[in-house]
């Protein structure tokens, strides 16, 4: 057994996966208690009267091709949110194990850990160093309880990338003890590529990708966990059969067609262009104290009075993210980059 399996929860190591109905699409399905007719407004290709493929192999193969990895190294999940939950449930014993997070960061890591009863150790990003990760302090907190370290790069909500050589050095040091999970939800908007190329040499590295942001499929709920096949095999036992709906599977296949990918790339370019324009324009707006550099599709903006800015944007019919309760971000607001027209409306509301 590899260490990637050995450090998992013993109940999960020994778990036998649920045996779902046989998947033989060429035959007539009288084995799963479905109705033989479609419902009235069913516009799907395959028919929603049928269960989807329990573990979608063709979709997994298509996503693996897309990311340039082996299908055995990829788990398709209901958004990366589900992948985060699967990791914590599979690796952390309630009341015994822990995860490390680096706030301010994406909230789901801590929520998933607390639901599972795992301890959450916080190693804050260093605001005075542009929200850089404090790798030395992080190392000091890597005691034997720690099974997962969550890093987010580019980070939500601060927008910065974490230092790539330091991430890789940490992954090497954690070998044999803990998984290093790097959430790359926004990597398509960044100036540096994904850590995908480093995976082969670092079996304890886990990457989270999603179609929700750069591929405009947040409503479809599809993410990809990319890791050593031992990690993927373990999580595959825990994920629900039929996790991805037929509608999601069909939407993802369409999104991976060349014309759709070309459009996605053009949209990412447009967002990056608008991001630079809005960042500059915001600096001229009333009460804006600071716009943090961003490698994602949002800006972290600090105001003299965040409350006043939130009032103005709301009055203009715009929702932005209030971060006033987040430590280190007391006067900050996170603003997603929209269309040029939406961005102009935002800038007008603050002028
Ligand atoms: C939006 C976001 C996700 C969620 O992705 P889904 O695939 O939609 O679940 C994951 N991580 C970060 C950092 C995000 O901001």
Quick structural overview:
The chain is an alpha/beta fold and 351 residues long.
Rounded Rg: 22 Å
Q: How much of the residues is beta strand, in percent?
A: 5-15%
What is the number of beta strands? 11
Major sheet characteristics = 7 strands, mixed
Helix content: 25-40%
Write out the CATH superfamily name of the largest domain: Type I PLP-dependent aspartate aminotransferase-like (Major domain)
The N- and C-terminal alpha carbons lie at a distance of: 61 Å
Number of helices: 12
**Distinct ligands:** pyridoxal-5'-phosphate
Briefly, what CATH class of the largest domain?
Alpha Beta
Low-confidence stretches: none
Q: Mean pLDDT across all residues, rounded?
A: 97
Oligomer: single chain
Strand order of the largest sheet: 1-7-6-5-4-2-3
Q: What is the element string, with H for helices and E for strands?
A: HHHEHEHEHEHEEEHHHEEHEEH
User: What coarse outline follows from CA principal-axis ratios?
Assistant: globular
CATH architecture of the largest domain: 3-Layer(aba) Sandwich
CATH fold node name of the largest domain? Aspartate Aminotransferase, domain 2
């Amino acid at each position: 057994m590899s260490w990637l399996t050995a450090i998992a929860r013993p109940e999960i190591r020994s778990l036998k996966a649920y045996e779902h109905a046989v998947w033989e699409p060429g035959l007539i399905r009288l084995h799963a208690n479905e109705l033989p007719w479609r419902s009235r407004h069913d516009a799907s290709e395959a028919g929603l009267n049928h269960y989807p493929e329990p573990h979608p192999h063709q979709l997994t193969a298509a996503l693996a091709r897309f990311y340039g990895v082996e299908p055995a190294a990829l788990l398709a999940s209901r958004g990366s949110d589900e992948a985060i939950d699967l990791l914590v449930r599979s690796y952390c014993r309630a009341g015994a194990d822990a995860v490390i997070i680096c706030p301010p960061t994406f909230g789901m890591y801590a929520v998933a850990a607390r639901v599972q009863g795992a301890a959450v150790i916080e190693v804050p990003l260093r605001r005075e160093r542009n929200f850089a990760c404090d790798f030395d302090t992080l190392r000091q907190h890597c005691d034997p309880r720690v099974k997962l370290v969550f890093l987010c790069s580019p980070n939500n909500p601060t927008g910065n990338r974490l230092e790539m050589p330091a991430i890789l050095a940490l992954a090497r040091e954690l070998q044999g003890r803990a998984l290093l999970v790097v959430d790359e939800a926004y990597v398509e908007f960044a100036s540096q590529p994904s850590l995908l190329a480093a995976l082969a040499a670092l079996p304890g590295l886990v990457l989270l990708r999603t179609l929700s942001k750069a591929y405009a499929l947040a409503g479809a709920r599809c993410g990809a966990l990319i890791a050593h096949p031992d990690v993927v095999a373990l999580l595959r036992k825990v994920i629900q059969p039929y996790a991805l709906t037929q509608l999601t599977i069909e939407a993802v296949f369409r999104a991976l067609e060349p014309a759709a990918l070309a459009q996605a790339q053009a949209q990412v370019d447009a967002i990056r262009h608008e991001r630079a324009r809005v960042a500059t324009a915001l600096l001229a707006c009333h009460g804006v104290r600071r716009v943090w550099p961003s490698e994602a599709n949002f800006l972290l903006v600090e105001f003299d009075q965040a409350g006043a800015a939130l009032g103005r944007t709301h009055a203009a019919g715009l929702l932005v993210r209030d971060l006033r309760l987040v430590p280190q971000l007391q006067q900050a607001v996170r603003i997603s980059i929209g269309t040029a027209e939406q961005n102009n409306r935002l800038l007008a509301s603050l002028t």
